[in-house]
Amino acid sequence: MVSRAAAPLSISRISICEALTSDWHAYARSVRCRRAVADKTASSIWSVNGSLILLVEDDEDIGSELIQALTSHGYRARLASGGTEALSAATAEPPDLVLLDLGLPDIDGVVLCRRLRAAVPDGIIVVLTARTSEFDVVVALDAGADDYLTKPFRLTELMARLRAHLRRRPGPQERTCIEVGRLRLDLLARRAYLGPEELALRPKEFDLLAVLTGSAGKVLTRNELMAGVWDETWFGSTKTLDVHVSSLRRKLMLHGEPAERISTVRGRGYRFEAEPAG
Length: 278
Hints:
By secondary structure, this protein is of the alpha/beta class. Helices cover about 45% and strands about 20% of the residues.
């Protein structure tokens, strides 16, 4: 991040601030309209009110804008300006979701992501980053993140993703088990096994594997997978689906499964093979 004393500001930061500011004005107008709607309608729109979100962001301007937006949407929001503060806050009161900027002054963002995943194993981690290469995205996801959003981003998309992730959190009614060959998923405990060995899966990887294996042998379109794992009203890039599929394949291969266990059906989507290919 650029020091507040430095001049001029980087193009990247200017773009971020402009995107947040312009989108904030549009958001503010929409909030005023929503407040005129009956409480019953409002409660149906914001179905995840009260969730605790920890924002890890060292830029004071961006952090202030985002905290204001989050609280206006009904979330409980906490701001941490560095990695050490973030770990303390997560330990004191585990958040439902973490918004993590990778460019922090005291701890490397990827290292912090791993530590936060260990501290809050059931929480959701969404990375905010200016890094756009697939390698950087994979590193962040492998470190424990569930999703990523590249800067500059629109506030409306960020809020939609938060609602999507929080609505998809597992509920206590899930009490079933899925078995396909050597693979077994305990949906209640949210644990996956290949034979006697447990797979180390991130939350969204588990959700994706559950959806795929729940329809083993059937082609699931990209839209069906995005709706089943992320949200039925998801908008934006579906690249995160491909990244999660690639990660699942690697983890299955480490335990002796062929890469073709999850087949790519060109122009359609993916299929979990009920029997290994070949």
